[in-house]
Amino acid sequence: MIWNQEKIRSVLPHRKPFLFLDEVIEIDGTQKIVAVKHIAKDEDYFQGHFPGNPIMPGVLITEAMAQASIILYSLAKPEIAAMHPHYYLGKIKSEFFSPVYPGDKLVIETAKVKFSDYAGITDAVTTVNDKIVAKANIVFSVRKNE
Amino acid sequence: MSNGIEYEIREMVSNILEVPVEKLTPEVDFFKDLNVDSLKAIEIVAAFEKKYRIIVPEDDIPKIRNLGQLIEYTKNVTS
Asked: pLDDT of A61-112, one tens digit each?
């Protein structure tokens, strides 16, 4: 482990139950990171998605990839991240290949496409047991607190 | 060759901004006239970098305000 959840919380404004990263296990400079989320068997959303057939909603996998993208952005733009800006999703192109079940371990790899002071683009891939379950191209904006 | 680049860039920007090609005159201002925001700007830059396999320095992004300047920039960096 390179970053624990405490370190992740120092960058991400998200908190439980909407924090979807447990640890960062790999950092490749400012180009790529790999993060992990362990999907508990009793996550709240499994109660309704779906009763008797629990599957992690695709939007939450996308959210995990977006949160990993913010971590990567913070490494590339530490002076901006230190100001604790607001991060907003702008555009997502995603694909989902396999369901994610309770007990699965998401491994999220996100790579920089382009970052500026005001926005970022990343390519993210999520795997479970080395099998790709989702991919996304994520465009987000960064707004500094006035 | 120049006309080819002009056509390619116009098509690319038109697709990203979802603006008809006819509206994309060389002088129309991306930010003032077409409401390009930071998200659209970075999308254009990323598509441009991918197509021409170059890196656009961040400081150059605000200097490119219209199609004419983008075409001129492309000719300079690809020549």
From this structure: 999 999 999 999 999 999 999 999 999 999 999 999 999 999 999 999 999 9
User: Cβ neighbours of residue B34 under 8 Å, at least 6 residues apart?
Assistant: B17, B19, B23, B28
**pLDDT attached to residue B3:** 73
Q: Which long-range contacts (CB under 8 A, 24 or more apart) does A52-57 make?
A: A54/A101, A54/A102, A55/A99, A55/A100, A55/A101, A56/A99, A56/A100, A56/A101, A56/A104
Determine whether the interchain pair B39/A116 forms a contact, defined as Cβ–Cβ distance below 8 Å.
no
Does the CB of B59 have a partner CB in chain A at under 8 Å? no
> pLDDT value at position B1?
41
Nearest to A121 among B37, B46, B61 (CB): B46
